[in-house]
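User: ok so my PI wants both of these folded by tonight, can you help

Assistant: No problem, let's get them done. Here's the first:
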Amino acid sequence: MDEDFAEFVRAALPGLLRYGHLLTGNPHDAADLVQIVLEKIGSRWGALRTAESPLPYVKRAMANTNISRWRGRRRENLVADIPEPPPFMQPDRLENEPLWQALAALPPRQRTVLVLRYYEGLSEAEIADAMRISRGTVKSQASKALASLRGRLGSLVGAEL
């Protein structure tokens, strides 16, 4: 493995996991998302390391990969057997935080629009381009998401949202 790439991963991993958590709504899917994207990036690291900062590229790749993943999940998968219950997992430390619960409860498209808008600071046009949807859809998804958050969190934060 290229030592520059290993150093990039060591430095960026905590932030990428937080960003992935925001995009996916849970830490387990976030870790999968980060791993998938870093595998792709690692194979092309030679071309990327010359960039001023590869972090924005990696974050954009994470958002795009997450969008592709939830688009693929919309299809129903029928199985013959009931899956085994998962082994005991350590509870997420943010599991009981009202904002995280409300954000995780949003549909994936609405959550992605909010994360790109308010966490990444992208414009409506940039979000529309990244998600391959219209600006009007970005606006409506953001409006619905914020209304949902207000409904869930209104008693906690008043009218600040």
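One down. Here's the second:
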Amino acid sequence: MAILKTLLMIAQVLTALGVIALVLLQHGKGADVGAAFGSGASGSLFGATGSANFLSRTTAVLATLFFICTLSLTLLGNYRPSASLGVMGSAPQTAPAASAPGASAPAAAAGSAPAASAPAAPAVPK
């Protein structure tokens, strides 16, 4: 389980870095960082609009992978295995915890005979 969590964390970091890089490389309406890295010059390789389509689709795929990794890590982080019922199919018996000093009487006496609220005074002969 720990190996799966580690692999998902690595995948999440890599997809996050990929999304950041691809968003910065895309050509926006104004002057952006994509022009500084040569985003406009790659039009000859992908065609006139091929670069924008390629970058936007790759960004969408990486964002989807990031979302899946995040949900998977959340589910694995909240997973608590249920207690085993054992070979015989019954829950294991545990001893009741000893009550701490100052604990309330109803909490300490749960499941046992009710305790007297005040001790009885000894009888004094006359």
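The CA atoms of residues 27 and 40 lie 7 Å apart. Helices lie at 2-25, 33-36, 43-46, 50-78, 105-108. Good luck tonight!
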